[in-house]
Write a structure and sequence with these properties.
Layout (H helix, E strand, L loop, with lengths): L1 H16 L10 H7 L5 E4 L2 E5 L4 H4 L7 E7 L2 E2 L10 E2 L7 E5 L6 E6 L3 E7 L4
Parallel strand pairs: 4-5
Antiparallel strand pairs: 1-2, 2-8, 3-6, 6-7, 7-8
Length: 126
């Protein structure tokens, strides 16, 4: 079930982005062009999308635990023109980002108010 959901997510993302002008990476412009209300952030040159409440992710979110701090949100914007590293469309400035200690890459862990956890997954062009 998880593999099917992940495959469908990647197919949808790939069809939305087409050929990007950023060396094959999904850009903020790609995402915001199709959903101006998207909950995304940029880290290390890649766009990450909030997957916390997606059914296929909820079933396996316990695998992803808070790791080491990787930075903080520096800018909140919905403009794709200057969507630099540590920019976000929804997370407040100063929000701390963590990697996950699951041995996998592509997931960022966010702890809000020490109670609510959010997970962002790296978007890859299909």
């Amino acid at each position: 079930m998880l593999k099917k959901s992940l495959i469908w997510l990647l197919i949808i993302i790939g069809s939305l982005t087409g050929c990007s002008g950023d060396g094959g990476k999904v850009t903020a412009r790609d995402v915001l062009k199709h959903n101006d209300n998207a909950d995304i952030l940029k880290f290390d040159g890649f766009i990450y999308s909030n997957v916390t409440d997606l059914e296929w992710f909820e079933e396996n979110k316990d695998r992803h635990q808070k790791g080491k701090k990787i930075g903080e949100i520096k800018k909140v914007t919905t403009s794709s023109l200057f969507f630099a590293n540590f920019s976000s469309t929804k997370l407040p400035r100063g929000t701390v980002l963590f990697d996950t200690n699951d041995g996998e890459t592509g997931i960022i862990f966010v702890e809000m108010d020490n109670e609510h956890e959010l997970y962002y997954m790296q978007l890859l062009e299909g």
